[in-house]
Design goal:
It is found in: Endoplasmic reticulum membrane. InterPro entries: Mem_transp_PIN-like, PILS1/3/4/5/7. With 396 residues, this protein is mainly alpha-helical. The protein contains 16 helices and no strands.
Length: 396
């Protein structure tokens, strides 16, 4: 498969994202005025509550069985490593460049969270369909490749709606805390200013006991708050959809209820798939709608864009090659080179589109997110092609 053929295959899904983004930008422009901020916020809530959970459920229930989870056990590990290593590299970018505090979570998120969804779903089967595909029989390659990509998409959604969701939420809370700190503090006057020195001495031991109790209460309160946050993230609609999808995919009798031409409740799966198909177009249009304002008022500096590009398209792919080849040499991976290609590809993808949904949801750095997405997806056209060529030469 030649470089130019691979360039065409790799660029198609990225160009689709860019075209839909331009449609969203036009709808939100001053000339059109059909997609104002209020409309984008409302659509974003629908994506978060309805479309994204439906997509997670439909893909997991249909493509993931218990046997797949066991035989493809390294894929969740590999994806976790992309988020972990990308997060560490993103944290280094933040420490070196020192961006505004509200951008820190966004930078770490774009460095760590790749688009595990629509890009592999389009890219992997397209490579299989090529006449000179190195992965053997076209129909077998396409079926197996689509299963790998679907599993990657489902796992990616789970990681993104837990780990990345927490990052963006943390940025929003940081901004809120800064705004609260800037407000003039209103303190009540001390009601016992006229109390004599003797009274304070007598009350001292009791006050110390109260402080100890408060410290103990504070520790357990922090533990309870942490567990509550974890529960909230697990109960976020997309994460809940992924969990339910995992259960239906792994439990055979539940799977037979909704999957298959003879399944009695197959209408549930088809309805979920129909709703889920609206997720990616809606997210991309919202992202494009934020792009106009972002290009005018964004605080993203060129060095921040360069840092994210270096992490996503230089450092992560090199690290990914080392991890996958090492795992293969240790016998952790199936012999199928297509599986190894998908694992390497996970280290090379542009940032996840869901990040835009999260920034819109918490009203934090939406404009900057759109600008970062624009540049990273433009560069992804060449980066995906070059790295895919390298991966294929290494594996085949």
């Amino acid at each position: 498969m030649g470089f130019w053929s691979l360039l065409e295959v790799a660029s198609m899904p990225v160009i689709q994202v860019l075209i839909i983004s331009l449609v969203g930008a036009f709808l939100a422009s001053d000339r059109c005025k059909l997609f104002p901020v209020e409309a984008r916020n409302s659509m974003n809530k629908v994506v978060f509550v309805l479309f994204a959970p439906a997509l997670m459920f439909a893909n997991l229930a249909q493509t993931v069985t218990l046997e797949d989870i066991i035989s493809w056990w390294f894929m969740p590990v590999n994806m976790g490593l992309t988020f972990l290593i990308g997060g560490l590299l993103g944290w280094m970018v933040v420490k070196i460049l020192k961006p505004p505090p509200y951008l820190e979570g966004l930078i770490v998120a774009t460095c760590s969270s790749g688009n595990m969804g629509n890009l592999p779903i389009i890219l992997v089967p397209a490579i299989c369909d090529e006449d000179k595909s190195p992965f053997g029989n076209r129909s077998v390659c396409r079926t197996v490749g689509l299963s790998y990509a679907s599993f990657s998409m489902a796992l990616g959604g789970f990681y993104i709606w837990t780990y990345t969701f927490r990052l963006i939420k943390g940025s929003a809370m940081k901004i809120k805390a800064m705004e609260e700190a800037e407000k003039p503090a209103i303190r009540s006057s001390n009601s016992d200013l006229e109390a004599d020195h003797k009274t304070h001495l007598l009350d001292a031991p009791e006050d110390e006991e109260k402080e100890v109790v408060k410290e103990d209460t504070g520790f357990w309160r922090k533990v309870a708050d942490f567990l509550h946050e974890i529960l909230e993230e697990l109960l976020a609609p997309p994460t809940l959809g992924a969990i339910i999808g995992f259960v239906f995919g792994a439990v055979k009798w539940l799977r037979n209820l909704i999957i298959g031409d003879d399944a009695p409740l197959r209408i549930i799966q088809s309805t979920a798939k129909l709703l889920g198909d609206g997720t990616i177009p809606c997210m991309t249009i919202i992202l494009g709608g934020n792009l106009i304002k972002g290009l005018r008022s964004s605080a993203v500096k060129p060095m921040v864009v360069l840092g994210i590009v270096c992490v996503r398209y230089i450092l992560l792919p090199i690290i990914g090659i080392g991890i996958v080849l090492t795992a293969a040499s240790l016998g952790f991976l199936p012999a199928d080179p297509l599986f190894q290609y998908v694992l390497m590809l996970q280290f090379t993808l542009p940032p996840a589109m869901n990040i835009g949904t999260m920034t819109q949801l918490y009203n934090v750095a939406q404009d900057e997110c759109s600008v970062l997405m624009l540049w990273t997806y433009l560069i992804a056209i060449l980066a995906l092609t070059v790295w895919s060529t390298i991966f294929l030469h290494l594996l085949v």
